[in-house]
Acyl-coenzyme A thioesterase THEM4
Amino acid sequence: MTRSVGRIFSGFRCFGSLPFGNPPLKTQCSSVLFRTTSERTLMHALPKIFGRKPRDFSLPNSSWGKEMMQLYNHYNRLSKETTEGQEDHGEQWTRLPSYNRTLKYATGGVYLSKIIQSKARLFTRNIRDPGASFEYVIFFRQDKLKCACIFQAGHLLEGAPGHVHGGAIATMIDTITGTHASLLSAPVMTANLNINYRSPIPLGSTVLIESILDKEDGRKRYISCRVTSTDGSKLHTEATGLFLSISVSHLLKR
Amino acid sequence: MTRSVGRIFSGFRCFGSLPFGNPPLKTQCSSVLFRTTSERTLMHALPKIFGRKPRDFSLPNSSWGKEMMQLYNHYNRLSKETTEGQEDHGEQWTRLPSYNRTLKYATGGVYLSKIIQSKARLFTRNIRDPGASFEYVIFFRQDKLKCACIFQAGHLLEGAPGHVHGGAIATMIDTITGTHASLLSAPVMTANLNINYRSPIPLGSTVLIESILDKEDGRKRYISCRVTSTDGSKLHTEATGLFLSISVSHLLKR
């Protein structure tokens, strides 16, 4: 059941298809690209890889509404960068940068035409028009091993009239839980997502997505998350994710 | 726990948020828009609603590759329209049209600004560039109550380098299983999606997504589906979906 293997990209925590012996261990890596616990480390490494500094989509733009900005400012005030040399607030959050492209030579172990390779973009960042689709920023709190994501849903994410598509919500859940799992130790691959939709999310609104680590069992990471209104009073979606950490030696078995 | 209610659109089978008493019955409607068992009925109704005939994204375009076209031609030959007046092949498939917009007055029961309303587009059809994101067509076989979807994944759906994002796969699964559930009886809302990722899907490739009805229990519809290579030899993803059928009287309770 050996599959082709994604090439290894130093400093990044996500890989393509991987070889697994048993079906439950075969997984789909989603959007765990460019994940690191240290934004500054990554930002130092990126120019060497890309040639020039790419746009960081996790920074505020003119489309961000009042709720998005309020929550962003809240977590940013508690971030490592802001609190350095200042009073310790007891919370240590780190904002994670977010880009829209993978490396040009990234083939994930499969043959892709040059055209597809050069045009490929991360699914959640494939529309450059600010505010049109996924506007989000993820913060990570290392001491509590939890993530918080602020997500503003644009008008191009419609499912039911006036509401966010269930697939767009699943995409954000995969992004947050996968990022969370990859931050804990090693590169990961998504094995399972179990999503319960409780109440729809109106198009254009901002929600909070929080994830926690439920359990670690060998290579397995069990992450759960909740999508709520920004004040936490209304539950929109609940989900669990199972991720498998991948060792470098595993990746080298082709 | 009453929620706002999506307005009712005659001839369509998907609605916005709905009121339910118990959390497990609160759901997220996704992409079950414009679903009908009769394309011709819908196509007659659409011009009156839209003013002019909208683009049907389920028809072939120049980006469709060889595998996509071969499977499309296979199912199209077995479709109702093609077989009328011809020999009965024993299979009766119906191609389902697919559009990128909801009605302008569709608010889903929630307040949306005029700007968001006018710009809103169905998530899976929000990029007009042929071949860039989701290229798919769904066929329905009423006598066996099953669906078959041919899906070609564009370069803007990337997750792991060279592979389709797990969220994009979840989006297609939600689309197919939700469509299937809505075709069986009444409008539906997605309550749960449980997705097992078995092996990654290379970017640019074409896959087959087949869904079957597992069980009906009152208002509940249990649909399962498999994402495989076009010849069925390789399993990429398995999933189950739980959907709740919604009665018109239910919709009117605001």
